[in-house]
Amino acid sequence: MTAWIVLPVSLSAFSITGIWIVYAMAVMNHHVCPVENWSYNVTCTEELPRPGFPKTCCTIQDIPLISKCGSYPPESCLFSLIGNVGAFMVVMVCLLRYAQVIEHSHRCWVNTSALVSGCTNAVGLVMVGNFQVDHAKSLHYVGAGVAFPAGLLFVCLQCVLTYRVAVTALDYWMAHFRVALALGAMVSLVLSGIFFIHESFVLQHAAAICEWVFTVDILVFYGTFTYEFGTVTSETMMAGLQQSHHHGSGVIMGPRARGSALGGATKGLKSPGGSSTSTHLNCTPESIAML
């Protein structure tokens, strides 16, 4: 077991806790209305703020979308911090997962696409966190339009990779769990988009709830990589770095050279979720002939 096991769960815990703190600050500062409020007015008369209590009169501008919660200080400062730190941790998770899949001798376009989509998701998060919707609407919406679809694509591709590298029954159960999370994220994102384009107060509020569900769902998915990261070693990092070097140099390597470059990773398969170093022989006549 390595210290990298802490990274995914830290990403989930830090981000989920952080955005709910941002929401609580926004409600207490009367910048948004509580999520349990479904009653909205076209206009509101000026009301005296009651410290420690949410707003009593809400308009469509007070719908608790995640972006609206982080639009005004002081909560906007924390929102930007969460976006920046979270994006960095997302990139680290994506790189480690990319290298880990390569270490298990699964070099394919799905793994590369997952890395690209994960890093694209991180770029979108930086834009969302640093360009608030009420002050830089165009850039904020561009960031959201990049982050949300890229995040959904990443989790879908990781579901495919989880099945490909699965060895034990527990690995397959983790794959099933991730599929359930990916389906939940897909449904909530589609519903959020459908509800958001309507002018109905109720549908706009429903869009906000779906957005929260989608965000928490994706963050929980990132946290599940704790299961595999217990087997991350220095050889895992070297596998990813050497693969990137080979792509950059354009050198075509034979089977012997590739096996040597990956540090013997092609000799066997480890369960991606276990800390055991035992290997499982998985050779076919064709692979023996190649060797």
What is the overall shape? elongated
Q: What order do the SSEs take from the amino end to the carboxyl end, as H and E?
A: HHHHHHHHHHH
Reported for the largest beta sheet, the result is: none
* Percent of residues in helices: 55-70%
What this model shows, in words?
The protein starts with 5 loop residues before the first helix and ends with a helix. The protein is mostly helical and 291 residues long. The chain contains eleven helices and no strands. Mean pLDDT is 83; it is low at 248-269 and 275-291.
Summed up, what is this model?
The chain has 291 residues and is mainly α. Helices cover 66% and strands 0% of the residues.
Properties at a glance:
291 residues; mainly alpha
What topology does this entry show?
Layout: H1 6-28, H2 66-69, H3 75-103, H4 109-130, H5 137-165, H6 169-196, H7 201-223, H8 226-229, H9 234-249, H10 255-261, H11 285-290
